[in-house]
């Protein structure tokens, strides 16, 4: 554990961060993020692929290379509703009709791959069947203030999406696309209402 935490401390210092607000320091790893990262590296669960951690409580996305080194991190917008389960049948529904309680970012381990959405925009599909992806910030209704939410230092402000993991345009293009947009990867979405051990299955 101490060796792992030292590696993470060094990596956090050298990784590319997009801070949540001007003059604000990047969010440090939470206890759950540390435990999941350690488990991935020790177990080899990522199968030699690059991987991402989505820390919903901190509203952060962390990117790791296939070698397990932390490469970059950014605040992210997440599902507006609390919860760790996704609504059923999302690939057969108009997402704009989702009730508020269905707008969650479901926790779990996902085999991700790059692709395009219905508008032809490059995305990283976390779960294609559930219409769950990592994508760049898009223009939205003015009252949602999505860009401002990403710059806010308060994670609670980041709960606004239909469920997808939304990051700044520059971060997606400069960090997500080169690392996760070239082939298969693994995405771990940490829970907010359950224990991480229950979601990822370690004892």
Can you characterise this structure?
The protein has a single domain (2-200), classed as L,D-transpeptidase catalytic domain-like (Beta Barrel), CATH 2.40.440.10. It contains 5 helices and 11 strands, in the order H-E-H-E-E-E-E-E-E-E-H-E-E-H-E-H. Residues 1-14 and 20-26 have low confidence and may be disordered. The protein has 203 residues and is of the alpha/beta class. The strands form 2 sheets. A 9-stranded mixed β-sheet has the order 1-4-3-2-11-6-7-8-10, sandwiched between helices. Strands 5-9 form a two-stranded parallel sheet. The protein starts with a helix and ends with a helix.
Integer tally of domains: 1
* Inertia-based shape: globular
- Uncertain segments are 1-14, 20-26
Let me know the CATH homologous superfamily.
Answer: L,D-transpeptidase catalytic domain-like
What name does CATH use for the topology? Answer: L,D-transpeptidase catalytic domain-like
The H-and-E topology, N to C, reads as HEHEEEEEEEHEEHEH
Task: Measure the end-to-end span.
Answer: 16 Å
Question: How many whole angstroms does the radius of gyration measure?
Answer: 16 Å
Name given to the CATH architecture = Beta Barrel
Mean pLDDT score: 82
Kindly estimate the percentage of residues that lie in beta strands according to DSSP: 25-35%
Number of E-type strands: 11
Structural class: alpha/beta
List the SSEs and their pairings.
Blueprint lengths: L1 H13 L1 E2 L13 H13 L7 E5 L4 E5 L5 E6 L2 E2 L28 E9 L5 E6 L4 E5 L9 H6 L7 E3 L3 E3 L1 H12 L4 E5 L6 H5 L3
Parallel strand pairs: 1-4, 2-11, 5-9, 8-10
Antiparallel strand pairs: 2-3, 3-4, 6-7, 6-11, 7-8
């Amino acid at each position: 554990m101490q060796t792992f935490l030292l590696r993470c401390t060094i990596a956090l210092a050298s990784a590319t961060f997009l801070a949540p607000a001007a003059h604000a320091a990047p969010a440090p790893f939470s206890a759950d993020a540390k435990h999941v990262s350690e488990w991935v590296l020790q177990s080899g669960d990522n199968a030699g692929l690059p991987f991402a951690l989505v820390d919903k409580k901190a509203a952060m996305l962390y990117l790791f290379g296939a070698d397990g080194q932390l490469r970059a991190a950014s605040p992210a917008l997440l599902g507006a509703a609390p919860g760790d389960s996704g609504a059923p049948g999302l690939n057969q529904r108009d997402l704009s009709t989702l009730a508020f309680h269905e707008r969650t970012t479901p926790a779990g381990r996902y085999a991700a791959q790059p692709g395009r959405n219905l508008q032809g925009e490059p995305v990283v599909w976390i779960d294609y069947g559930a219409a769950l992806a990592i994508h760049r910030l898009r223009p939205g209704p003015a009252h949602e203030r999505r860009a401002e939410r990403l710059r806010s230092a308060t994670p609670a402000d980041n709960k606004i999406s239909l469920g997808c993991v939304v990051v700044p345009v520059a971060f997606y293009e400069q960090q997500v696309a080169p690392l996760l947009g070239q082939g298969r990867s693994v995405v771990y979405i940490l829970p907010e209402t359950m224990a991480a051990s229950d979601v990822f299955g370690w004892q």
